[in-house]
Amino acid sequence: MSVAVGREGDDRMALRLAEAYRTLAEQGYACVISVHSSAEFSGSLDAARVAAAQVADEVGVETLDSGVASVGTGMLVERLASWRSQGADGPRALAAAHALSRSVRLLVVPTATARLSRRRTRHHHASSLGRTASTLRVRISGERALFLLSRAALTPLARATDLVELTSRLVHAMSAVAATEGALVYALLETGDARAVRAVEKPLDTNEFVSRCLGTAHADESVVETIGAGAVGVAFMPARVYTAPFSELALLGLDSAVQPNQGAEGS
């Protein structure tokens, strides 16, 4: 099992991944599940597919797009590691991970000048001049945005200059999901700014929905490069899905009957 979230040249990344896959093959692994963050965060998925093709005669590699990124991808990796320790075979573990990926979401507030803040989203069709003007406005005002990353789709939910306002909206979005899908489990993403983390923790501590924190992940350099130092985020999913028996998730597989990820978008 491997996980990749960073950014580097595609050719270089493919070579590194192919080397990693060969090493795992030499260690006796017949099946490798290679987990990757959404293309909105990382270019590693395409590189992994190239690398998998290069080593096809040596080891079976299955690539998995988590649909999210960073700590959200980490939640899938943690579940896969747990299933492996329980003796799960590769094909069923992959099917279960696909089912799980349909329920995990990442809500993130990048810094105003971060790479993610400058990306065109699926709802953004402004002209080049309009995009330039928008970028200048954001930099001058310090306006930040709350984004939802789910099923490999990036959606802006709110904009404001006040971080507390955005983190309150973040928790409200989680509450909307909990209202329809039940108790949640979540993990925090921090980038070295304690104030930003507190701005999320406070409304989470006083929320009216049932939730459990799995921990806090410290973003690595590649994630900070994308969302900026001072960004904050929360990855979450329904607790009933996170704790579902492996056999149940494996049966759901690619045709998962888990409720669609729509709640946070409508918040």
From TrEMBL:
Pfam families: DegV (PF02645). This is DegV family protein. It comes from Thermophilibacter immobilis.
